Amino acid sequence: MSESFLPLSVxxxxxxxxxxxxxxxxxxxxSSAGSYVERFExxxxxxxxxxxxxxxxxxTAGLHMALLAAGVRPGDRVVxxxxxxxxxxxxxxxxxxxxxxxxCDEFMNIDVDGVRSFLTEACExxxxxxxxxxxxxxxxxxxxxxxxxxxxxxxALAPLxxxxxxALVEDAxxxxxxxxxxxxxxxxxxxxxxxxxxxxxxxNKIATCGGGGAYVTSDDAAAARVRHLTTQAKxxxxxxxxDETGWNYRLTNVAAAIGVAQxxxxxxxxxxxxxxxxxxxxxxxxxPGVDLLGFQEGTSSNCWFHSVLVDGAVFGRDREELMTILxxxxxxxxxxxxxxxxxxxxxxxxxxxxxxxxxxWRRVLNLPCSSDVxxxxxxxxxxxxxxxxxxx
Length: 392
Prior knowledge:
Elements lengths: L16 H11 L7 H14 L3 E5 L2 H11 L7 E5 L4 H9 L3 E5 L9 H10 L1 E4 L2 E4 L6 E4 L11 H10 L3 E5 L7 E2 L15 E5 L12 E5 L2 H10 L4 E3 L4 E2 L10 H12 L1 H19 L5 E3 L6 E2 L5 E5 L1 H4 L3 H10 L5 E2 L14 E3 L3 H8 E4 L7 H14 L4
Parallel strand pairs: 2-3, 2-6, 3-17, 6-7, 7-9
Antiparallel strand pairs: 1-10, 4-5, 8-14, 9-10, 11-12, 13-15, 15-18, 16-18
């Protein structure tokens, strides 16, 4: 087995990426106008079964727009998990709103019971929906994140949001290709249940544009509004007339060309990641204190990241020690994100009964998961984990 550096997650560019980018360069269409942007949007819609997609510069911009399209206004509250990447909370702030952080469930997704208890115990009825009792601010939306590709429990969250008159916006930035196979959401792809959703095509995602995102919705008016706002809110493109503050958030044709080639390979990427996850599960089964996190019943994940839970009391080393040992052997791993309600710019936000998220933060380690990670790579990682253990 090779002892070369094994990265955590890098893109696999083995399709028509070179051909499509060269076509952009040869044609001169490299900016936000061009056929590849339209092809990218159309192919994404076809893959997940959504009527509208608007290609954008990144997932953060997409979340910003999704919140505005869902009616979030300055001063509003948006309920979201504390266990996610900070870009989700930043987008709430970009919309002028404030996040309310809740706990996670046993699959690291938003805790629906926590959302329910916040709405019933920390809020009171207002003229336009619930209001946070401590601040008096309207609670306008709930923003679940499909963490590491695992579909969140929207079968329970969607009716709860509807009951309280909240917009449901999906952060699907990590979950392209994931879907529900059972329950009320069966047959739906992640990103097609809420008022709107956002996917990311950053370099480490399952499919990449080198950077990029997409807003997806079934709402004709919302799609038109996001398209308008992200092209500087022009009402007359020839004479440069604008009717409100807009943003230059559209994806370039060159980036979209890479994205089209990547989407053509998505099924293969997902199959490879699922096979990798299954092999990790098989080979780690006899490692005491290191457990591969599974999936909620009735879901089909894209297996973007492979997360293990390190029980230091059993394994003999904690998560930090194991990460250091693997790094010394050229194996890149990564812990889960720092909890958002503990981050410096967000400490003044409401954090509602957060308990389980801290347990995950102390234990989660993500293993190499690129789409071209093969059996020999998995065996190398697991052998290194075996050797690192000091079981007692």
